[in-house]
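Sequence and fold
=================
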Amino acid sequence: MFLSGKAIQLVVGEERKIAFNTADAGPGTLEAKVDLLGGGDASAANLEDFCRVEANVASRSKLVLTPSKQGDYKLSLKWGHFDVEGAPRRITVQAVPAG
């Protein structure tokens, strides 16, 4: 199991789902943690609500990201206590575009 691509770009309030095929990952569950980079008020960013993992169903897990505050973050992923290849990954959250 791995996380491909570069930095993840998000917009405040918009949900993004990332699916993982876990069929060959071995025993374990997907664990995710988001940390605020560069200081700032982590409680204002609602990190507990920023990311959640949907249940492992039919050898697939989904990571759901819903940021509430713009800024730069670090996404850490583990499967069965081991780091997922390609993580940690930077997340950049931008404000909702005016218009």
